[in-house]
Amino acid sequence: MKKFLAEFKEFINRGNVMTMAVGLIIGSAFTAIVTSLVQDIIQPLIGIILGGIDFSSFGIQVGDTTLMVGNFIGAIITFLLTALVLFLLVKAMNSLQRKKEEEPAPEPEPEIPADIQLLTEIRDLLKNQK
User: Fold this and answer.
1) Does residue 117 surpass a pLDDT of 80?
2) Quick one: 82 exposed, middle or buried, by C-beta within 10 A (0-12, 13-18, 19+)?
3) 21-57: per-residue pLDDT in tens?
4) Which residues is 60 bridged to in the sheet?
5) What is the pTM of this model?
C-alpha cells in the first residue's frame, strides 16, 4: 500500500498533471463566460433580428412535447465560440513555439583531435621555415 501511495504522490506532483488541472479549471471558467456571452448578448441579438422573438425559449411543439430548439442552437453557438477561441489560443502557442525553434543556437566549433592539431602545427611550422 505504501508503494501505491508513493507512486500516486509522484504522479500527482508531476508538472503535467498540475498543468492539466489548472487548464481544466480555467477552461470551465472560460466556458461560463462564453455561455453568458451567448445567452445574454448573442441570442437576444438574434431574437431582435428575427422580429423580437425570445430566442432562448424558442421551441417547436410536437404533440405534448416542446423541442427547445433555441437552447440547442445556443449550445451550438457556445461550443463553436469556445472551439474558435481555443483554436486561436493553440495557434498562437504553436506560433511562439515555432519562433523559439527557428532561432538556431550558435553551433559550437567542432573539437579537433589532438593528433590533427599536432599535424596542423607541424605543417604551419614547415610553411614558416620556407
Assistant:
1) yes
2) middle
3) 888 888 888 888 888 888 788 878 877 887 777 767 7
4) 67
5) 0.52
How many C-beta atoms surround the C-beta of residue 91 within 10 A? 10
User: CA-CA distance, 74 to 78, in Å (whole number)?
Assistant: 6
Could you tell me where the DSSP H helices lie in the chain? 2-13, 15-37, 43-49, 69-102, 114-129
pLDDT at position 105 is: 67
CA dist., res. 60 & res. 10, Å (int): 53
List the grid coordinates of 79.
461550443
**27-35: long-range contacts (C-beta < 8 A, 24 or more apart)?**
30/82, 30/85, 31/78, 31/82, 34/78, 34/81, 34/82, 34/85, 35/78
What does the pLDDT look like over 62-116, one tens digit per residue?
899 889 888 888 888 888 888 887 888 888 888 887 777 666 667 777 788 888 8
Judge whether 59 and 70 are in contact, CB under 8 Å: yes
**Rounded to an integer, what distance in angstroms lies between the CA atom of residue 17 and that of residue 7?**
13
Amino acid (one-letter) located at 50: L
User: What one-letter code names the amino acid at 93?
Assistant: M
